Amino acid sequence: MHPLSASLRNRTGLITAGLLAASLASIVFAGMTGSVSVPLADIPGAIGELLNGGPASMAATLLELRASRALTAFVTGAALSLAGVMMQALLRNPLADPYVLGISSGSAVGALAALMLMATAWAVDLSAFGGAVAISMLLYLLARRDLRSGAAAEGGTALLLLTGVILSALCAALVTLMLSVAPENQLRNMVFWLIGDLAGAPLRWLPWIVLAAGLVFALRNARAMNVMALHAEAASTLGIRVGALRKGLFFISGLLTASAVTTAGSVGFVGLIIPHAIRFAFGPDHRLLIPAATLTGGAYLVLADTLARTVIAPQQLPVGVITALIGAPVFLYQLHRLRK
Length: 340
Known about the structure:
Mean pLDDT: 85
Strand content: under 5%
CATH topology: ABC transporter involved in vitamin B12 uptake, BtuC
Low-confidence stretches: none
Number of domains: 1
Shape: globular
Number of helices: 13
Radius of gyration: 21 Å
Structural class: mainly alpha
Distance between the termini: 37 Å
Helix content: over 70%
CATH superfamily: ABC transporter involved in vitamin B12 uptake, BtuC
CATH class: Mainly Alpha
Largest sheet: none
């Protein structure tokens, strides 16, 4: 093995292991923190009670509720961050985020329509996912020539982005229409969904399966993403199947975004600032950027949600408010650093 490759592999392994430990620590911290705190010394015993399935103490009950919410926050943040990395690679624009193509707006139309009709929780989730998939398919039909093309030309990327912006504007108009005619008793739930909220979000296996599939795809194509980012025009001559890669990035990032938005609503800034921060810290190599951004995004949303439910406890804030309050100044700072 080449010494440089071995050094890169070791660096990637060390950073990933450190971020994995930090992610686990964030979940433990979320389980300890709340209106009633759980001491760190009680955590092992509470975990043992939950595993044995016997009568649970108050510490075990609190840990189960908080850990379930923390795991949901982690998979949502990880999916958004990974989708952000892939969307930025697809559009060759470091300012792109998972919501830029209007997929989250389609999800919002579906979810708010179900909420306005006072549908059950599973019907709201299904409608949100269906709306995201519908916008993704429409966007693909309108921009399929650019996605199928082997040339990652700036014109094709700009056309794809413009199509997504127009569809997003159309969905925003539909959202405004529904908010203006919705019953008053449903407005609070609809606004909280639009902002992004994890209160009551169930822990499910499907988002984890989607995240795992997206992570496998991204890691297998990390080298190709590096080549496409550095040598877009010549990537096909270097053995990269650019058309297939661009379609894969489009569909997988769309699926990750749909999964995250269906789970927690439109949580902003996670898929934008986390990939930026990881690039500043560790460089643009996708072989490290992909796992590092995924773990950091998950841990970041866990901590943001912990702050959202404790800062004015017992009242809880939507987690989207916290991510926006943190994300906006951080992004402005990153832009300032980018100019320098």
